[in-house]
Amino acid sequence: MITLDSKIPSGPVTEKWDKHRAEMKLINPANKRKYTLIVVGTGLAGSAAAASLAELGYNVECFTFHDSPRRAHSIAAQGGINAAKNYQNDGDSIWRLFYDTVKGGDFRAREANVYRLAQVSVNIIDQCVAQGVPFAREYGGYLANRSFGGAQVSRTFYAKGQTGQQLLLGAYSALSRQIGAGTVKMHNRKEMLDLVLVEGHARGIVTRDLVSGKIESFAADAVILATGGYANVFYLSTNAKACNVTSIYRAHKKGAGFANPCYTQIHPTCIPVSGDHQSKLTLMSESLRNDGRIWVPKAKGDKRPADQIPESERDYYLERKYPSFGNLSPRDIASRAAKEACDDGRGVGPGGYGVYLDFADSIHRLSEETIAERYGNLFEMYERITGENPYKSPMRIYPAPHYTMGGLWVDYNLMSTIPGLHVLGEANFSDHGANRLGASALMQGLGDGYFVIPYTIGHYLASEKTAKVTTDHPEFKKAEQEATAQTQRLLNINGKRSTNSFHRELGLLMWDKCGMARTEQSLKEALKRIPELREEFWRDVKVTGVGEELNQSLEHAGRVADFLEFAELLCYDALEREESCGGHFRSEYQTEDGEALRNDEKFCHAAVWEYAGSNNKPIRHKEELTFDNVHLATRSYK
Amino acid sequence: MLGFLRSTILSKIVMTVSGAAIVGFLIAHLTGNLLIFGGPEKINAYGQGLRDLGLLLLFLRIGLVVTFVLHIVTSIYLADKNRTARPVSYTKKKSIQSTIASRTMFFSGLTILTFVVYHLLHFTYGIVQPEFYHGEYILHDGRTVPDIYSMMIHGFQNPFIVITYLLAVTFVCLHLSHAIGSAFQTLGINHTKYNGIIKKAGMGLATILWLGYMSIPFGIMAGVLKLTNGGH
Amino acid sequence: MKLVLKIWRQQNGNSEGKIVDYMLDDVSPDMSFLEMLDVLNEKLIAKNEEPVAFDHDCREGICGACSLIINGVPHGPEKATTTCQLHMRKFNDGEEIVIEPWRASAFPVIKDLVVDRSSFDRIIQKGGFITANTGNAQDGNTLPISKIDADASMDAAACIGCGACVAACKNGSASLFVAAKLSHLGLLPQGQPERGSRVLAMVMQMDEEGFGSCTNTYDCEAACPKEISVKNIARMNRDFFKASLFGV
After folding, report:
1. Contact C71 B81 (CB under 8 A)
2. CB contact under 8 A, C132 and A131
3. Which residues of C are less than 8 Å from B78 in CB distance?
4. Model confidence over B112-123: pLDDT tens digits?
5. pLDDT (tens digit per residue) in C80-99
C-alpha cells in the first residue's frame, strides 16, 4: 500500500524552496565519494543530473541505451526554453511564469513544484550560457527572446530551430567532462530492464548490454530515472523510435505510484500520415500558425485540389469558433478542432486525416521572401518529407501525440513512492498538470537535473543512512534471473506476427479509443481489447535472432510488452477521470460549445496508481491539489 | 609541445612548408632555364655561375634533398595512416565535391618522384643520353664550360622525351592545383574574402609554371631554339 | 516501386561481412528510406530471417543516429539531408541501391549497418566542454556576445555527430567533426580560457583513435547533413598551431 506524502514545505509559496534548501541535510564533501548514484537516461534531465552530482563528488553510474548520451530525444526539441528573466522589460516575473504554467496546466499541477520551476528557470539560462550554448543574440550582444505558445510575454530563449540539441549538447559536454575525469562511469548501449529493491529501498538496476546481450546488475545508494515519456504507446508520435515506458513501468511494477497517465499532449502541427508504412510523425514548429490560416472544405468529401476550392466554400474553423485567438488557439483546442473536422468527413489529403495550413494570404500580404525568411527551413523540411511545395499549395497538417504530462509520482524532493527512487524530467508527473505549455519541457528537464536533485538527493542520503549492498545480494540475482527469463521467453515464442505489427495495432487502438477525445464507451472497448492483444502477443509474437548479441527486434519486443500492460493503466486513468482537462478530453464532459469541462469538486487531485499484480486492476490513490495562489478558473480562448 | 610533434596536423604543416620550399625551387629553376631563350652564352654562364658557388651550392643541394625527403617521408607516413584508417573499403563509393587532383595527390606525387629521378639521370648525371652530356662551350671570358645549351637542344629533339616531360610537368601542375589552396587551409588561412584570390593565384602559378617549363621543349620542337655553331 | 537492394550483412564485429541482395517490390515513393528498410525487415521476419540492423532514432534529422552509405554517398544523394529524411521519391523504379555501414577503423562495425561511434564521445571527453560547474554561472547577460560570433558558433554547433564526414573522407579523417566542436566553443568568449588546451587535447585524441589525416579534399563538407563548413578545419589548424608554438 503506497502512501502519498508530497513533503511540500510549509510557508508561502514564494519562500518554500529557499526554506527547504536551508533545512535540508547535507553530506560532507569528503563523504560524497562514498556514495554511488545510478542515473538512467541522458536527456536534459539525466545528463544535467549526472554531471551536477559528479561535480559535487558523488560516484555516478550513468546509463543510456543509445550509442552516445548525446542522442537522447531531448535533442529534437525545436522551439525554445522559457525563463522568467524579464530581459524584455515586458512585465514578466517568476510569479507570472508560475501563474501561466499553473493555468496552462489546467489546474492539475502542484503549485509548490511549479513555483520552484519558475524560480530556477533563471539559473538554467545562466548555466547554459556559461557552458557555451549559442543562444540567439541581439545585435548589441544580449540574449534574444521570442514569445512562444501564446504567451503574452517574450520569455523564450532559443538557438535557431534546434534549442533542444544545443541545450543537450551543453549538458552532454558537462557530462563528458565528468566521464573524462572518471567521476561518471558511462554505460552506452545498456538498457534498464528492472529496478532492484532491497528492504524497500531502490538499490540498483538490472540492465541488458545491447551489444553483447549480457544481463548485469548495478548497485547504488539511490537510483535516478530520467527516461522520458511514453507517447509511443500510440505507436505514431513525434517521439523518437526508441522512446519507451519500460524503465518507469518496471519501477511502477516494483511499487512506484504512476500519476495521471491519461494526460497526453497532442500537438496540432505535425505532418499527416502518408500511408501504412508510416513509422513516426514529424512535428513542425507551432510558429507556423502565426502566419498560416487553417481551413478545410465546407462540404464533406470535397476532393478538389485546394486551389480549386473557392473562398466561399472554405471553413476557417479556428477563426470561426475562436475569433479572438483564431489560428493561435492553444494546442489542445486546435488539435481537437482538427479532429472534429476530419471525423466530420471534411479532412483533406490521402486518407482524409489532414487540414490545410495555408500561407497564400500571408504570401500575398507580405511577399514570398518574407515568408521564406521566417519559415524557410520548415518549408524545406515539409517539401523534403511530402514532396509538395508549400509556397504553391497549402501545407497539410494533423495533430500527433507529442508529450506526456503523466509519469511516476514524485514528492517535492522528486522522490517516488519507493524510497531512494528519484524521477526527473518528462518521466515524472510533477510540473505540467494536465497540459504543458510550449518551451516548458526543456525548462523542467534542466531544472530538475541541475538545480533540484543535487540538493534533494543529499538530503535523502543523509537522512536514510542505509547499509551498503552489492550485486551479490539475492534480490539482484532474482531480478537478473527474471530479466533473463523474460528475454528467453520472448525469443522462444516463435509465433507468426512481428513485434511491430502488435505495436502498430496497439497504437491505432489507443489513438482511436483513448486519443484526442475519449468516451466511457471507447475506453471500455480499449480495456477489453488490450488484454486480448497482450495475450496474443505473448502467444504469437515472432522475435528472431538470439539474446547474446545486438538484437533490435528483441529490444523492441521487450518495450512493446510493457506498452501492452501500460496502455491498460492509461485507459483506466482516463476512464476514472470523469472530467475534461488539458490533454485529457472526455467527450461526455464538455460545455455547450464543445469546450473542456473540468470538475474541480471531484477531480482536483492527481490520480496515483498502485500496481496490483498482473491482470488485476491497479489501485487508484489521490493526492489532493490545493490552489492557494492561482485561483481555480476556467480557461477561455474565445 | 610533445603532442604537437606527434600529431597529424604537424605532419600536414611539414608537408606544407616543404612543399612551399619545393615550389620556390621550381620557380628558381624555371627562371634559370628560361635563360636558354637568351642563347647559349646566357645559359651556359648561368650554369657555370651555379657551379662557382661551390660549397654554397652543395648546401643548397643538401637542403633541397632534405626538403624532398621530408615531403616524401611525411606523405608516406600520412598515406599509411590514412590507409589504415579505413581497413575495409566500400563496395561502392562516390566522391561528392572533391577534385581528381585532391584525391590523387599521392599518385601524382609518386609520378613526379619517378620523373625527378629520370630528370636527374638525364640532365644532371648524363646517364640517359650520355652522347650529348660532354659537350663544351667557350664563354666570352674565355673559360671552357659544359655546354648545357646544346645538351638541352639535343635532348628535346627526341619526341618521346618531350612527351615524357609534357606528362611530368602536367602532373606537377595537377599536384600544385590542389597543393596551393590546400597549403593555405592547412596553415589556417581560409577566409571568404581571400579564398578567391588564393585560388586564382594558385591556378595562375600552376599555369605559369606549366607554360614556362613547356616553352623550352616546345620552342625546340618548333625550331625557335636551335643549335648554334659550336660556340666560341 | 521495385528496388534491388544490395545490403552489407555482418553478424557481429568479429565475423566477415558480405553484400546480400534483396528484392523489394512494394515501395511507396512517400516512404522515408528507413521506412523502406522497415518494410524489408518485416518481410525478413515473416520469412524467419534476421532483420537488417541499423541505427536510427528520432527520424527527423537531428539525433545523428542514422548512418548509411547509400550508393556510395553518406546519407544518400540528397544534399543536406540525413538518411531518415531521405524519401524514396528520390529514387527510380527498378533502381539498384547499395547500402553499406560507415567504414573507418575508429568506427568498428557492431552488426550489419550498425557501427560504434564512441570514439567521437572520447574526443569530447578530452576537452569538448567549458569547465563551468553547475551553479558557477553569472547572469547570462553579463557577457555580451556579438551576434556575428553567436551565429557563427551556432553554425558550427549544428553538428549532429553522425560521422558522415568521416565516412565520406577518403582518409577516414574526423577533422570536420572535431573542428566543428572546437569552433562552437572557440568562437564564444566563454570558450577562450580553455581554447588552447582544448584544441591540443582533442586533436591528440582524434589521432589516437585512428582517424586519418585531413588532405583537404572537402568531401566531408559536401556530405555533412548540417552543411558544416571546412573553414572550421582551418580554424582548428590555426588554433592548434598557435597553442603548440606559444603555449595554451
Report:
1. no
2. yes
3. 212-213, 215
4. 999 999 999 999
5. 999 999 999 999 999 999 99
